[in-house]
Design brief:
about 290 residues, TIM Barrel, two-stranded antiparallel sheet, disordered C terminus, binds adenosine-2'-5'-diphosphate, NADP, NAD(P)_OxRdtase_dom_sf, oxidoreductase, AKR
């Protein structure tokens, strides 16, 4: 959990952290506080998740109860789709910090590539970065085309692209493009929202290594060089999900997992983000905290 990777701007980021998508605001404080207590240093949230207030309370508790400093933690959140655009992003950044009770962020991501807006949003992130308000900036759910367009219109290369990534959906093309550009992949829903946990091939590997299925998947991410943020609200799972450093998957077993890729995304921007002529998704509309 203390192990870090160096981002393209030199900032060190933990390789494994806690995700909180689908964690209710009421549960977020406890999950985050427990994770920090058990050694997690990376916490990943988003305005869209509706739990920034709970996450902020958990961070505060985690720092106080464990004698930590703010700088010991690495906090990521994301620009809400409805807040995109230059001025709006800057304005809402301040509100986000208030919700989280923080004075700066470690990583700020554009949550989804909202058409006609994401370039302006990126310019705002570049300003926040230059002003020292965020230590690194990045993107999320950007395919190769979106990333190319962004790179053509930006001064700063994103440090991270956070994508849905799990054994069933390995985004091989995007991953190799990002490797080429020095952008690191971070996996959201690394356990496939729980679905990848029932995969029979990975179950067999779990038996072979005497590990849980989740641990095999998270170890796979690590050996792929992918930063990973499993979500759980159960403390025993939060702890177990971080215990992946006492075994190594063989090259053959890595190849076996690589073959499970079906390129099946559960969620993608065309169904989700705002596009000209498309109504915003109800979920996006509803969540405002
Ligand atoms: P819960 O929060 O009840 O523990 P992902 O991070 O891919 O979105 O997956 C999260 C889902 O997987 C959640 O439903 C979470 O449930 C469940 N989960 C997380 N860790 C484990 C684990 N070690 N074993 C089984 N289920 C897990």
């Amino acid at each position: 959990l203390q192990e870090t990777t160096k981002l393209n701007n030199g900032v060190l980021m933990p390789k494994l952290g806690l995700g909180v998508w689908k964690t209710a605001n009421e549960q977020a404080e406890e999950s985050v506080a427990q994770a920090i207590k058990h050694g997690y240093r990376l916490i990943d949230t988003a305005k869209q998740y509706g739990n920034q207030a709970g996450v902020g309370a958990g961070i505060k508790r985690g720092i106080l109860e464990n004698g930590l400093n703010r700088k010991d933690l690495f906090i990521t959140t994301k620009v809400f789709n409805g807040d995109q655009g230059y001025d709006s992003t800057l304005r809402n950044f301040e509100k986000t910090l208030q919700k989280l009770q923080l004075s700066y962020l470690d990583l700020y991501l554009i949550h989804w590539p909202v058409d006609n807006k994401y370039i302006d949003t990126w310019k705002a992130l570049e300003k926040l970065y230059r002003d020292g308000r965020v230590r690194a900036i990045g993107i999320s759910n950007f395919d190769i085309e979106h990333t190319k367009t962004l790179l053509a219109h930006s001064d700063i290369t994103p440090a991270i692209n956070q994508m849905e990534f799990n054994p069933i959906n390995q985004e091989k093309d995007i991953l190799s493009y990002m490797n080429l550009k020095g952008i690191q992949m971070e996996a959201w829903s690394p356990l496939g929202g729980g679905e990848a946990l029932s995969n029979p091939t990975i179950k067999k590997l779990a038996t072979k290594y005497n590990k849980s299925v989740a641990q095999i998947i998270l170890r796979f991410d690590k050996q792929m060089g992918v930063i990973t943020i499993p979500k759980s609200t159960h403390v025993e799972r939060i702890v177990a999900n971080s215990q992946i450093n006492d075994f190594t998957l063989t090259t053959e077993d890595m190849a076996t997992i690589k073959q499970l890729d079906k390129g099946q995304r559960s969620l993608w921007y065309k169904d989700f983000a705002w596009h000209a002529g498309h109504k915003p998704n109800a979920y996006v509309d509803a969540v405002q905290t």
